[in-house]
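Support reply, case 0932

Customer input (verbatim):
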Amino acid sequence: MSLNNVFNVYLAGPINNCNDEEAYGWRRDLKITFSNLGIGCIDPLDRDFRGKEVLNYRDIVENDLEAIRKSDCLLAYLWKHDQPYFGTAMEIMYAHMIDIPVVSVMPFPTNLKGEKLLAEAGGKNYTFHPWIQYNSNLVVNKLKDAVEHIGYCVKYGVKI
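Our regenerated output:
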């Protein structure tokens, strides 16, 4: 338990090129959900530098690294399929390197009928990436599954 004797989850995911709802919405919802489970959240968007990254890059990275070190788990929500996750991928790898458990959420993209889309090359899952898989303790398809797993592990003292 890192801060205030509470299990804390660092909320990693896209920020740049996201509107307010995309950047804040899922984080806001998870803060409520985790709070109901007695779990705290560390949100990098509490320091919103969107549009000011060039002048503040050092503060952004150093504060994020410190926040990850203070967390007990990193939850990475990799939902935005049309952009790279440079910062999130580095946060995932950093957490892994310092033995902070990582739970990654990679929803399969779907069409309007809700059918899973597959990449054109070889029919492999569009969202699979070996670096994310390697640096994650668990990769799931839905945020709900990640929350349930983390909640179960915290409640019963099971390693994530």
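We compared this against your earlier run and they match. Two observations from our side: The longest strand covers residues 8-12. The CA atoms of residues 41 and 96 lie 18 Å apart. Please reopen the case if you see a mismatch on your end.
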